[in-house]
Amino acid sequence: MLEYLYFPHDISTFGPKIDWLFELIFWLVMVVWIAVMIAMVVFMIRYRTRPGRKAEYIEGNSRLEIIWTTATAAILVVLAFMSRSTWADIKEHGPPGDVFYDVTGKQFNWEITYPGPDGRLGTKDDITVENEMHVPVHKVVRIDLTSKDVIHSFYIPNMRLRQDAVPGRIIHVWFEATETGQYEIPCSQLCGFGHSGMKGNLTVQSQEDYDKWLKDLYANPPSPDEGASPR
Fold this sequence. Notes:
alpha+beta; three-stranded mixed β-sheet
């Protein structure tokens, strides 16, 4: 429901888990907020100042305080366990990868490194382009994420994916897209004066189109100064 109100359209396999958890917390907070607002209005009317009425000192109700404190703590504990389970599924127990990339944040671009014709990263035929990430649909994408200078944040709203890129660290990220299309990869961590213009493009393609694009990239790799992939 919230996706239709203000969430970007979800295209990831783990997006529904995140959206469901967010909606659960949202509606719990809404119910509590409405109950508190109603109670405040009732108390304001019932205990308002009236001629001839003296103020009284009222002691708290220990039993009531224990009940609502315990109930609140129990809800938070349940939400913590549910969040931990979702976090583990996404961050710790991801599936094996089908395609692999190195992604490096720098002021103010994303460097996307593709394995060359040998199909392996870390070899001489790797190809690096700026801000253009192409992936096949329904394939598990594995990324080794890092940064050259300051902390950046690799963010794909439609994929429900956000991960800080930290200098000196390699952080493993994965996702699996369920729909083809064009999507943005902004940096969501203030990283300097050019932060607002640091935006990459994610293109999710069919396997056939992806293979064709990759073949064209191998045939016409960008020069180091160009830093851009063929269209």
